[in-house]
Amino acid sequence: MTKDTKAVLRLDKVTKAYGKNLILDHLSFDVHEHEVVALLGPSGSGKSTLMRCVNLLERVNDGQIWLGDTDITDPRINENAIRARIGVVFQQFNLFPHMTVMENIILASTHVLKRDKQESIDKAMSLLERIGMDKKAKSFPDRLSGGQQQRVAIVRALMTDPELLLLDEITSALDPMLVGEVLEMVMELKEQGTTILMATHEMSFAHQAADRIVLLRNGHIIENGTPQEVMEESQNPQTREFFSYFRNL
Amino acid sequence: MATFDPSTVSTVELEREKYRKSEGLKSVITSVVSALVLVAVITVSLQNSPGWQQVKLTFFNWDVFVQSIPAVGQGLLLNLQVLFFAVIGVAILGTLLALLRTSRSAVMLPLRWIAAFYTTIMRGIPMLVVLYLIGFGVPGLVTSRISPTLLGTVAVILSYSAYIAEVLRAGFNDVHPSQRAAARSLGLTNLQTIRMVVIPQALRKVAPALMNDFISMQKDVGLISTLGAVDAIRSAQIMQATTYNFTPYVTASVAFICLSVPFILLNDWYSARLRKRELNGGTV
């Protein structure tokens, strides 16, 4: 990444502990505009905790997180306004089961950004059309396949035009056939220039889609570079050990 | 997508369907016959019991029944009014108590304690005592006359809110935390999250329990008669006092049953639908 591109997200010595158990130990890295950063690491390495800190679902114990020019760890900021600037997609989709697909998608647009309802519906429809799901607008989430639910969840996260999209292991609850359709959608978003920070276990996808890979282990960053540098050229024994589990897949 | 055409099924399925239909018919006939037998047994044993004629005259007197309908019906209108306002009051107070009980903010701590204390005490006191305490205690406190209907309504609200609050609290806690996380991630405020995500899902989960409490409340509004409000029960009592015939109470009971049956059926239907949805088309 060149120096003049703007950092959308900047983590500066971010530290998080549950009691005395240190989860994130002084982590620092940036996510630049139009960049896709994949957060890799074994279970328990702190990926999800980091995502939750960025989305203000967890409070950091030290360090700062900047979203654009805003220090989002400052207790004086309006948390809801910050959350609306970040789109989040969860592993378990977390669509609201009592609302239709359309109601799920336009909720933040109409109630957080206070946009016109018809305008929101039109926008949602065009997004749904793009993923071929406009006919499902009136369906309830439990009538959709896992892959369809997750794609709806992505559309819901995109409705507020977020500066940053957080994808937290979004394919971990899907079978291999459905993983494909969700990842295809992420590739499309990348081509449109969406800034994405994603935690994932899909190594080949991370290699293909990510501009940069941040490898976490026990709350430390042990690698931060291009997929080529991290996955193929690294001589770090911990890195090589981690990727060795995926070589034969 | 491929579609299923029921007219093209194999002979195996047709044969199975025929068998199921004949089995279904058999079970309908069996249930009709057993119901008729049961009614016959009850009728015969009642007719043969020595005091039946006397009981029939004092409790199931058709002429008295018809005579009592206007007064009891008039009284029932009061019960309906009380029920209407009580439902609104219970919905508001019950939700408020449940929200206080489930809130986690430090500011709410004293209120949370009060809510916990209130629901614990209120669910322990017999309804009749609550009615007496409010109905006779409050006028004594302010030393002026207050309509017994109003006091009765307040007592019903105070008592039932405690039960409803606990049912709602169970519902709120049953909504998975990931739903809150998703809502807050979209930028919704805490209040918006409660109103648009938590409450609608919680209501769905506890709807059968809530309707059950509603049905129970429907008949318990009859207890305001103990404060002297002239409702259906009180009207029946007045008639009974003059005629020495208990049939008006039966009239009032029939009226209350008629009120509750639609909601009981609605509740059964809704519970069955929820269950069906959870079974997702299974047969066991």
Automatic annotation (TrEMBL), chain A:
Q: What Gene3D superfamilies does UniProt report for this protein, alphabetically? A: P-loop containing nucleotide triphosphate hydrolases
User: Where does the record say this protein resides?
Assistant: Cell membrane
How does this protein sit in the membrane?
Peripheral membrane protein
Keyword Ligase attributed: no
| Chief location of this protein within or outside the cell | membrane
Which residue intervals define the domain ABC transporter in the entry? 9-243
Which species is this UniProt entry from? Alloscardovia macacae
An MF annotation (GO) of this entry: ATP hydrolysis activity
| A Pfam family assignment | ABC_tran
Identification of the protein by name: Peptide ABC transporter ATP-binding protein
Name the UniProt key words of this record, in alphabetical order.
Amino-acid transport, ATP-binding, Cell membrane, Membrane, Nucleotide-binding, Transport
Q: Which InterPro entries match?
A: AAA+_ATPase, ABC_ATPase_HisP-typ, ABC_transporter-like_ATP-bd, ABC_transporter-like_CS, MetN_ABC_transporter-like, P-loop_NTPase
Q: Which PANTHER family match?
A: AMINO ACID IMPORT ATP-BINDING PROTEIN, GLUTAMATE_ASPARTATE IMPORT ATP-BINDING PROTEIN GLTL
Gene Ontology annotations for the cellular component aspect, listed alphabetically: plasma membrane
From what superkingdom does this record's organism come? Answer: Bacteria
**Which family would the database say this protein is a member of?**
Belongs to the ABC transporter superfamily.
Annotated SUPFAM superfamilies? P-loop containing nucleoside triphosphate hydrolases
Automatic annotation (TrEMBL), chain B:
Source species, domain of life: Bacteria
This protein's membrane topology, according to the annotation, is: Multi-pass membrane protein
**PROSITE patterns attached to this UniProt entry:** ABC_TM1
Q: Which GO terms describe its molecular function?
A: transmembrane transporter activity
Query: Do you know which CDD domains this protein is assigned to?
Result: TM_PBP2
Q: Which Gene3D superfamilies match?
A: MetI-like
Please state which protein family the record places this protein in. Belongs to the binding-protein-dependent transport system permease family. HisMQ subfamily.
PANTHER family, A to Z: GLUTAMINE TRANSPORT SYSTEM PERMEASE PROTEIN GLNP, MEMBRANE COMPONENT OF AMINO ACID ABC TRANSPORTER
What's the protein name? ABC transporter permease
Species annotation:
Alloscardovia macacae
